[in-house]
Amino acid sequence: MFGKILKIEDKTIHVDNLKKESLTSYIGYHVVFEDRIKLVGEITFVNEQEFQITLVGFFANDKFASGVDIFPSSKANCRLVYKNELEQIIGNQNITLPQNLLLGQSSVYDGFNISVNVNDFFSNHFAVIGNTGSGKSCGVSRILQNIFADNKKNPINSHIIIFDAYGEYRSALTNIDTHPGINVKFYTSETNLKENDEIIKIPPYLLDADDLALLLNLKDPDLLTTLEKTLAYVYIFKSNDEICKKYKNDIIAKGLLDMLSSGKSAQQIRDQALAFLSKYNTEDINLETTISQPGYNRTMRQCFNIDSQGKLLAVELVMEYLKQYSDINIEQITVTPTEYSLDDLYYALEFAIVSEGGLNNPGIYEKLNKVKTQLHSIINGEQKKFFDYNGFVSRDNFIRNLFMSPNGENVQIIDVDFNGVDDRFGKTIIKIFCKIFYRFVTSIEDRGSFPINVVVEEAHRYIQRDTDIDVIGYNIFDRISKEGRKYGLILGLITQRLSELSATALSQCSNFIIFRMYYPEDIKIISSIASNVTMDAIEKVKSLRPGSALLFGTAFKIPLITQFEIPNPMPKSTNVDIINKWYND
Hints:
Blueprint: E1 2-9, E2 12-17, E3 30-34, E4 38-46, E5 50-60, E6 63-66, E7 77-80, H1 83-90, E8 100-106, E9 113-117, H2 118-122, E10 126-129, H3 136-147, E11 160-164, E12 184-188, E13 197-199, H4 209-215, H5 224-237, H6 242-260, H7 266-279, E14 290-293, E15 296-299, H8 300-303, H9 315-322, H10 342-355, H11 362-379, H12 395-402, E16 413-417, H13 423-443, E17 452-456, H14 459-462, H15 468-471, H16 476-483, E18 489-495, H17 503-507, E19 511-514, H18 520-529, H19 535-541, E20 548-553, E21 560-563, H20 578-583
Parallel strand pairs: 10-18, 10-19, 11-16, 11-17, 12-13, 12-16, 17-18
Antiparallel strand pairs: 1-2, 2-5, 3-4, 3-7, 4-5, 5-6, 8-9, 8-21, 14-15, 19-20, 20-21
Helix pairs in contact: 4-5, 5-10, 6-7, 10-11
């Protein structure tokens, strides 16, 4: 069938077609040039005169390696690849081995599986890309089901969390926990819980200033210091230590002294002071505090009365009383971490605003009041349920408990249903979780001993080119994509719009599964990241049938087109049955 080499152009070898027939069914097959070393090529074109073969790699010591920088000699013999050689190229056919993950079937070689080494794929960031209806959800569901297949050892120590934008993976994961030692958790954002569902919750005391900045949609980085002070205050105010009580007195005294020396009218000062002490007070400083002078005692409330000349009756007495509370350095106060609620945080934020001089500076107050208003709306809205966490738990135990069943067994997969949560808040929750994961994995002494795979559906809605770096100095997804791999925090991005995805996160992905795509801008991005993929292969992406995908990256020896099996059970991602809805009586 193969004759002599006619000519060589770039990496394309033109070989004489001895049968003089247009054997188009051979397009996509691999051949070996027997020469000094065995060079491997793929048939990309055939007519009655010749085969055009593109070099893709070579065999060295019976091991296939991709890429080639040499060419066969003119006398090299050309033949079809042998079966044992083919396994080196497209993946081990023994899918019962735990390290071999079945992806699908070869679109070229009938009866051949496409498999991938679990370590090569899941220890690196990956992206699953495709237009709506191309088979992304079914493909991902099939991969997850194949990880926990009946005919192989199951990964009892895996930690996979899926942020499920539409709640469509629940049905596909329902049978996975029938395997011994395998457990699945389902979290939801809905109040009406299904059986075994839980509402996803984050302990407020695990939030740092950066988390609060994201949660409260902070735009001004200068206000981060106020949030840091708020976090310091909330622990102080939850403590009953004597020094903490003194510090609270100190804040109130300073706030009042600023008001009394503000130069405002007596009526303004009186109204502001009474309102302030009604909200902020202690046993030592409140409206009923007795202020003594020789032969006469007054309450602080009485001291703010206005005399017949329009002056505050005894403001000097109040100021003298307040000055007895000396300054306390907050860094000298040591408190034991404890639980607190968003309401406690709100109370502390109000004190932070006071200590920042916000009550007497309209510009500062306006900025800080927006922050306070945002927190108030969360506390009084549907979003508060995500932070109603009972009891105290360390960050380490929070993560470990997250991946633990009620009976104390490992949980291998968590599905978090974000259906019904608006994109901005959903993005914030995912960021906060990923920040907690990042702090957790980077704090483990035995690096990489607790790997976490974070899979984000509709990633273009959550992992974007945000302004986080302008406020907190970094974007957590970009940081994880660049640094998370070495700590065992791995991202899996599922998206239909590459152009809306963070370029940094995408650039750090090592493996790609590309379903049908035809939007020109996204095709252009694919071609820019696919260094070893020919334009012919990228063009095929536009016409792939549903469930077929182009695979390339470090886990694959060469780019491959694979047909994924239909998952069983299916995710809830199929199109609506219009005929049934329109015509069913």
